[in-house]
Amino acid sequence: MRFADVFIRRPVFATMLIASLVVLGLFSYRRLGMDLFPNIDFPIVTVTTTLKGASVEEMETGVTKVIEEAVNTIEGIDELHSITKEGLSSLVVQFVLEKSRDIAAQDVRDKVASVLAQLPVGTDPPVIDKFDVDAVPVMSIAMSGRRSLREVTELARKQVKEDIETLSGVGQVIMLGGQERAINIYVDPDRLTAQGLSIAAVRTAIQQQNLELPGGRLDQTRRELVVRTMGRIERVPEFGDLIVAHQGDRPLRVRDIGTVEDGVVEPRTLTRLNGEHAVQLVVRKQSGTNTVEVIDRVKAELDRLRPILPADVDMRVIRDQSTFIKASIETVRLHMILGALLVAGTVLLFMRDWRSTIVAGIAIPTSIVSTFTFMHYMGFTLNNLTMLGLVLAVGIVIDDAVVVLENIFRHIEEEGTPPMRAASVGTAEIALAVMATTLSLVIIFLPVAFMAGRVGRFFHSFGLTVAVAILISLVVSFTLTPTLSARMLRQRGGASAHGGRIYRVLEAGYGRLLRWSLAHRWVIVVLAIASLARSSGTPVIGTPSAKDCFVAGTVRGTCDAARFAVAAILRFCPFTSHLHTLCYGFDRWGRSLSSEVFDDRAPRHRPYRCTTVRRLPPCFQRRLELRQLLGCRNVSCCLPGGISLCRSPNSRRGTG
Q: d(Cα 476, Cα 405) in Å, to the nearest integer?
């Protein structure tokens, strides 16, 4: 008794066997996460140390070199480099990929702890972080309103930021461009010098008199009271009454050497939405969480908070990574469906029998859906690489079923064998060949999952997904395909049994081409080498942009220069939906390292020149529009001297 006969004679058993795999796959599909790329852990650890007021030379010799010498003794370091600035030392330790990230971080933490006593006095404790590719900003929210920026900041912090931080999957919410309340004390340098005091003495005096300290316990007969020294200043004018020093018998107060102001923290970032001051909330997800699910939760929470906020407050999402992920996955899913239909159409074209098309085509959904169970078990997500593997598998998983079906079909059509016996004999004849073909494909894709290096980490899920899909197709071709063939195929008579007129014409043409090729072998070899050489120059295409994305431009200069550039962009790009500006790294006098201009747009009636195009279908056309803006004389001529408009380094990423 042959192996396939068990399923041919027991069709219910064969159907339930494959149906169980499909049902498990459907339930697993609902639990699969959706992300842009696989979650990959790189063993990279950063050590950040700050020392306020220290020069670059002092940070280099007293902090950076001390930590470098200690960390350099750790085993498994692949690369070690540091960045030293005024008051800041940043050390990046990259280990070999084989080392666990948690173990690497613990080793760095132990080595840094051993040299803490050697760091200069006043150095803040080093902050040791594990580099996490997955814990990245996934969403940005902008809030603006017809009120002071300080009020908008309070609304954003108390009613939006604190609420979003409690959502599952949200790791951190960073607020940019806001104005938080602060008590500012401006000291007159001339008065301070005349009194013979330093600014450090003033700061120490204020710190010592504006605090709360535990005062011990007060033991009574039946109870014990906790005593605290209530030294916090409750009102702003009371800061001026603080005593800084004594000049003889006369106390020297803060108001004698300066002024006190109930103001805001010195701005280090500035955000604008459509030309108005705004507050930006950057949402970062937790490591290992699903990007789309986190963003959907945040959006649902924003919809709940909008009716609570004042009517004049405008809150909108300016950056949403889930839009690109959904569009990318949906595009791949559409291509998968189209590929399955084309494969089934090809089978129908050559076999000219709708029953054979159904028998062969059913191997595609059963194999693909069943693979979702393995993906869920391995913790994979629906990302670009796993979906790429499934798309590639669409054209492969049907091969085994087609080979088995064609041999059964040949026995029925050419030899007149009954379908039940043809299914048994045809499957047995071709079983070893089908198994050899399938295993050869598995041998091709399985090593991809175990490649070394960073590329291997990315393609691990890709290789395993394709290999498992191919193995499941082998099971389907040996169980469900002969079972359906034995009961669905029918013997046809006449000319159609021998291929029909179209097939005979194709067969005759192929025979003549094959005889000519065998007679001119060197011509075929030369053509093959020329085709291979020509294909080696094919350009590599990067990540395609989604229908809903943006491109970031950078303005070098002061924050006022960024505003000027935004006005120029708005002037020459009249189809702007809304424009968001972020300035960072500037002081109170307007000096800025850079200012990023983000332009978010909606589709319009015709192509146009602009910084960023949103929902413009051709990816290359979006890039062309950016290059046109960067070289646009109309915009450049309106910018003041010394200001340059250039593309941001991350402007070609799919999410912006």
A: 12
pLDDT at 557 over 70: no
Query: Mean pLDDT, to the nearest integer, of 42-64?
Result: 88
pLDDT of residue 189 exceeding 80: yes
What amino acid is encoded at 177 in this protein? G
Rounded Cα distance, 66 and 117, in Å = 11
Phi and psi at residue 15, to the nearest 5°: -65, -45
- Per-residue CA distances from 134 to 95, 288, 509 (Å): 18, 7, 56
User: 């054979």: which residue's tokens?
Assistant: 356
Asked if residue 582 lies in contact with residue 599, where contact means CB atoms within 8 angstroms, the answer is: no
Does residue 165 sit in helix, strand or coil?
coil
Question: Tens digits of per-residue pLDDT, 285-308?
Answer: 887 778 888 888 999 999 999 988
DSSP 161: I
**Residues in contact with 566: Cβ distance below 8 Å, sequence separation at least 6, in sequence order:** 272, 275, 579, 581, 597
Q: Identify each DSSP E strand in 137-191 by its residue range.
A: 137-145, 170-176, 181-187
Decide: helix, strand or coil at residue 78.
strand
Query: Are residues 38 and 288 in contact, defined by beta-carbon separation less than 8 angstroms?
Result: no
* Residues 6+ positions from 192 with CB-CB distance below 8 Å: 198, 199, 202, 257, 258
- Identify the residue with better confidence: 587 or 396: 396
Residue 644 predicted with pLDDT over 70: no
Nearest-CA neighbor of 283 among 314, 309, 321? Answer: 321
Q: Which two tokens stand for residue 605?
A: 């009636």
* Beta-bridge partners for 276: 273
Average pLDDT, the chain: 77
Q: Residues 460, 474: contact at Cβ < 8 Å?
A: no
Report the distance separating Cα 227 and Cα 253, nearest Å: 28
Q: Which two tokens stand for residue 446?
A: 């399985």
As a whole number of angstroms, the distance between CA 371 and CA 24 comes to 9
- H/E/C letters for each residue in 266-283? CCCEEEEECCEEEEEEEE
Enter the pTM of the model. 0.67
511, HSE (Cβ side, Cα atoms, 13 Å):
6
3-state secondary structure of 132: coil
What is the DSSP secondary-structure string of 425-453?
HHHHHHHHHHHHHHHHHHHHHGGGGG--H
Locate tokens 């065998």: which residue?
518
pLDDT value of residue 559: 55
- Find out whether 523 and 47 touch, Cβ atoms under 8 Å: no
**Taking the CA of residue 656 as centre, how many other CA atoms within 13 Å lie in the half-sphere pointing to its CB?**
25
- The two tokens of residue 324 are 């690109």
